[in-house]
Amino acid sequence: MSAAPDLFSHRPYWAARLLPAPVLPMSRAEMDALGWDSCDVIIVTGDAYVDHPSFGMAIIGRLLERHGFRVGIISQPDWRSADAFKALGKPNLFFGVTAGNMDSMVNRYTSDRKIRSDDAYTPDGKGGARPDRSSLVYAQRVREAFSDVPLVLGGIEASLRRIAHYDYWQDKVRHSILLDAKADLLLYGNAERAIVELAHRLAKGEAISDITDLRGSAYLRRGLPEGWSEIDSTHVDAPGAVDAHPDPYQDTTKEPLAERSRSQPSEVVVSLASTPLSKRVKRIDAATTVIRLPAFEQVKRDPVLYAHTSRVLHKETNPGNARALVQAHGDRDVWLNPPPIPLEMKEMDALYELPYTRHPHPSYGSAKVPAFEMIRHSITIMRGCFGGCTFCSITEHEGRIIQSRSEDSIIREVETVRDTDEAFTGHISDLGGPTANMYRLACKDPKIEATCKRLSCVYPGICKNLDTNHDPLIRLYRRARALPGIKGIRIASGLRYDLAVESPEYVKELVTHHVGGYLKIAPEHTETGPLSKMMKPGMGSYDRFKAMFDKYSKEAGKEQYLIPYFIAAHPGTTDEDMLNLALWLKKNGFRADQVQAFLPSPMAMATAMYHSGLDPTHRIDRRGQTMPVPRGDRQRRLHKAFLRYHDANNWPLLREALKRMGRADLIGNGKRHLIPSWQPAGTGDATPGAGKPFRTQQTVDRPRNPPSPARRKPAKGINPGSPTGRGKRR
Asked: In angstroms, what CA-CA distances link 149 with 88, 182, 407?
């Protein structure tokens, strides 16, 4: 992997003598109090401004401030006109636009496309403070306010929309957000390196149209740069013939796929699928080679090419060997530079120790920002995830390389929380990140890491080259909880239990000292079919972890329980899979209070599965079999109902499904039955005869399930099926 200049090696901009600000300004009055006549950079965000390193606008704002730039924040502006975007005047360098810590569509809508009533990133949790597709709308308003100022998109919403993408809410493939937003540049992933270099180059007078070499950036262009060569994406992966009935008289052996797609979109599009891989070009310079993906017009009309594009993009996410990608949108190309070089430990330390106030902006007064309250006393120890779960967006945004802070830096932050936060009671709510136990884990050989194209380091099994040593994390836990004034430390981030079982000492440490009665983990399913599409381990890993968990809980004299999360309606899941999961839940005494249905987020591999019915974790083949995909509202409701088999409102739907599946033997009033034959009054689709038994036709020669053990009652306030804490589902 090529080296990158130190994040803090640039000579500070002239305004450094005016900084740092007690808090980044959100009004002209605050700018005046700081003695500023203007801002160099203005960040527009869909979140409330919280000056805490768990919030993107705070990290980017404080980092640019550290480099001597005056940074202002426009938080949750009224998007109905351009007036709110003029509040801080015209920035000298650029506007940075982000939807916030969450995708605005995921933030506002449930997986059933229903509007949520609240927003955790808004003061007092009020909903409706941001528009749908916030990045796009904000960018349009910025253009109305100041059409001549460079406009840069960033954050997770823009990251996941950097190429043509399937939009679940409109059920169609949309352009790269770059086109619709009319932005000059898009910075994807953790963009610290790119944003710092961009600011310094603009400050030196370089035009943003000339800044096309930043890693982790995307921009629009026409034509190929001088000295570059282009290969078709079918050189990387061969999806097969593009059209079913090619013209037999048309010479299709010479013209590249993308060129034909732009000049003759209605004609046959050529791939290299018929060329043996062994005979394709091998000697190429990756540094000056771009892979041409199928054009927007192609992936919009052809789900097979959409899945092919998803596979190629994910194969080009290792910053050590990724090549540039290009995708035509009409007569222009969206050009994606390779991903950013991960931050070194000393850079991570400096970034997280910038002078954050660790509080919401004072203008919010006594209003509480729920997302801040959740992470107020938590500490980020790492970034990234090499798990590769297909439904998760971490890989597309943060990448697979783990970036960790030093133990000393983390301890200093714990002490800062202890000594400066008046609300601190001695309890750290989390030491984690995207994953609780990937701290300092990496490939044993940097050379192998730099050339690897695996989609996951832990699926279908843990890679032999992965260092799974949890000793640094164990030392960190012990040192942190030994600090004076620290009464307890909990681990709330998602735990990768298939890694944890590789270190029994870690499991013992975790269970003995850092579990508050319940530990939430995410097997996601029990059946091989859906698990293979998620790239999640089988239940054998869960059983091993549970045995360790129970053993060490007993040794510690603690009554503690595992709360497993499961996902409904994921691509590759059949009704029978959900039935088997429901039977497992009943057998093990679990009753989920809330359940999660699969939500196809833009650019995720599972979303490509949902849209195409094909599996991009394997080579795409037009002649290959499609997978079952739960799409309709009724089937999705049924899959959720199986997870909540104990809810009487779901019983009518489940009875109908069980009869259709030939499993009416599971309807009855005994312990071996999944649901009863009677319906309580006022539930489900009960009629005036509710409360009386339903007559069902029993089948014979079906295996009977053993009696269900007593229900495990959750503690007051715990919803076993409702993810809490800031960690991602693992």
From this structure: 14, 12, 42
Tell me the pLDDT tens digit for each residue of 20-40. Answer: 999 999 999 999 999 999 999
What whole-number distance in Å separates Cα of residue 599 and Cα of residue 620? 23
pLDDT, residue 595, reads 86
Tens digit of each residue's pLDDT (9 = 90 or more) over 650-687: 999 999 999 999 999 999 999 999 999 999 998 986 44
Look at residue 717 in the predicted model and tell me its pLDDT. Answer: 31
CA distance linking residue 457 with residue 463, whole number of Å: 5
Distance set, CA 563 to CA 517, 712, 723 (Å): 10, 10, 10
67, 5 in Cβ contact below 8 A?
Answer: no
What pTM does this model have?
0.88
CA 422 – CA 414 distance, rounded (Å): 14
| Domain residue ranges in the chain | 14-217
3-state secondary structure of 557: coil
Alpha helices in 39-119 (DSSP H): 56-66, 104-108
CA distance 190 to 218: 14
DSSP-assigned states of every residue in 175-238: --HHHHHT-SEEE-SS-HHHHHHHHHHHHTT--GGG----TTEEEEESSPPTT-EEEEGGGT--
* CATH class of domain segment(s) 14-217: alpha beta
Q: Nearest-CA neighbor of 391 among 654, 200, 600?
A: 600
Sign for the CA dihedral angle at 601, 602, 608, 611 comes to positive
Identify which of 445, 446, 482 has the alpha carbon closest to the alpha carbon of residue 342. Answer: 446
CA distances from 567 to 449, 473, 656 (A): 31, 29, 22
- 203 vs 205: CA distance, rounded Å: 5
Scan for tokens 């309606």, then name that residue: 569
Q: Residue 38 in contact with residue 70, Cβ under 8 Å? A: yes
278 pLDDT higher than 50? no
How far is the C-alpha of 64 from the C-alpha of 21, rounded, in Å? Answer: 12
pLDDT at 79 over 80: yes
* Tens-digit pLDDT profile for residues 333-373: 999 999 999 999 999 999 999 999 999 999 999 999 999 99
Report residue 422 as tokens: 């008046």
| Ordered DSSP codes for 541-552 | HHHHHHHHHHHH
